[in-house]
Design brief:
By secondary structure, the chain is an alpha+beta fold. The chain is built from 5 helices and 16 strands.
């Protein structure tokens, strides 16, 4: 019976094995001739080696195809992540939110009033991982139009770009980076039905302007904001700061303003900030320059698993140059408030908080007359959910030359 010779190591393989088998068979001389395979066996060996060659080619081809398929899949994921289009459409990169608040005010010696004060919608969209837009659309006092009490306003509309992990830029209509309420004023985020008076008559919340801004943050929790923007147009007959808001509605823009803020949030529950703004001409025509200084603190500290103490404080002051402002005593305008609070968890999403606030302000601090106003407010917030709140407070206003006036207010607020 003829046998198949054992191939040396150098002759193992596919095509090489077949050739080596033939060479060895003939090189073995007459003794090996007796063991030479028949023609049929030789043909079988060659066919077997050919099959092995074809199988090897198929495995190599399949491997190359798999590598190519995997490469294409990775490239598609990378492109999707870079473009910010991992979802199935634009709606996966678009955000909708908003807030609203209803107020019921019962004033002493005055008519009771009810007002759906604000209804706001947010719209945002991510163009890609580094560029996005944000907008805020608001209806005030429920009904707008000629002779109606309300207004339709565009409070924010800007494009934001991340230049690095720590540097971001914006361009468009933006809320001013000053105070505690101007940027974050959704009803569930603060105590009291009405906003405090300092961030109304001194810092004219809600206050927005058109311009460009840059923000830099650090790992230590320090944030620096710089904004170059349109300026106020304060009326020269009163120099009321709040009346100078143009709201970017075809507003006069002879002189702009520059605002800077440094903010610290490096400790849980602690926010400290200071802001400075300068405008070359607050009136857009009389060269009455103005400088605003704001300093604020917001601290929350837990004292148990279900209770925390809070403290908010803010100072704001304007210094205005010019004879017109000095004649009215409005060349200096300032105010401050202090607001301690306690909040208790009730289980689930519910919690309740109690607060007291003392606030004092003077829009004619530059004269010698007594024009300072003071207000005490005490009240309660009951959160049905962190984003839905019921409010009640009682305020007493002390105004020179007038009897103290009291107001009981009830409110409903939400955000989403």
């Amino acid at each position: 019976m003829n046998t198949i010779p054992i191939l040396p190591a150098t002759c193992r393989g596919a095509a090489v094995g077949a050739v080596c088998a033939i060479v060895i068979a003939f090189a073995g001389g007459s003794a090996a001739a007796q063991e030479l395979p028949s023609t049929e066996e030789m043909w079988r060996i060659i066919q077997q080696q050919q099959q092995e060659i074809e199988a090897l080619k198929e495995r190599i081809g399949a491997g190359e195809a798999q590598v190519e398929e995997t490469t294409q899949a990775i490239e598609a994921v990378v492109e999707s992540m870079d473009a910010g289009t991992a979802g199935t459409g634009w709606w996966d990169r678009t955000q909708i939110g908003g807030y609203g608040e209803l107020h019921y005010n019962i004033k002493e010696d005055s008519l009771d009033r009810v007002d759906f004060h604000r209804y706001v919608l947010f719209f945002g969209h991510d163009f890609n991982a580094t560029t996005r837009m944000f907008s805020e659309f608001e209806l005030e006092h429920s009904l707008a139009g000629e002779g109606k009490p309300g207004e339709v306003e565009l409070e924010q509309a800007y494009i934001e770009r991340d230049f690095s992990d720590s540097v971001t830029g914006r361009a468009g209509i933006m809320l001013m980076p000053v105070g505690l309420l101007n940027e974050v004023h959704e009803p569930p985020t603060f105590y009291g039905v009405e906003r405090n008076r300092i961030e109304n008559v001194i810092v004219p919340t809600t206050w927005w302007e058109a311009g460009v801004s840059g923000t830099m943050t650090t790992e230590a929790g320090v944030q620096v904001d710089v904004m170059l923007h349109s300026g106020l147009k304060v009326p020269t007959d009163s120099f009321k700061i709040r009346s100078g808001r143009g709201k970017v509605a075809n507003h006069d823009f002879e002189d702009g303003a520059l605002t800077g803020r440094i903010r610290y949030t490096g400790m849980p529950g602690v926010e400290l900030a200071a802001a400075l703004q300068h405008q070359a001409d607050l009136t857009q025509g009389s060269d009455a320059s103005g400088t605003l200084i704001v300093a604020n603190a917001d601290v929350t500290r837990p004292i148990s698993d279900s209770m925390s103490l809070g403290l908010r404080a803010l100072y704001a002051g304007w210094e205005i140059d010019g004879d017109e402002a000095a004649a009215l005593g409005a060349d200096s305008q300032n105010g401050w408030y202090l607001e301690p609070s306690v909040r208790m968890a009730l289980g689930g999403d519910e919690s309740v908080g109690f607060f007291a606030r003392y606030e004092t302000w003077d829009t004619r601090a530059g004269n010698s007359a007594d024009t300072e106003e003071n207000q005490w407010v005490v009240g309660i917030n009951y959160w049905l959910h962190p984003n839905a709140v019921l409010k009640a407070d009682y305020a007493t206003l002390e105004k020179p030359g007038s009897e103290d006036a009291s107001t009981l207010s009830l409110g409903v607020g939400y955000q989403f």
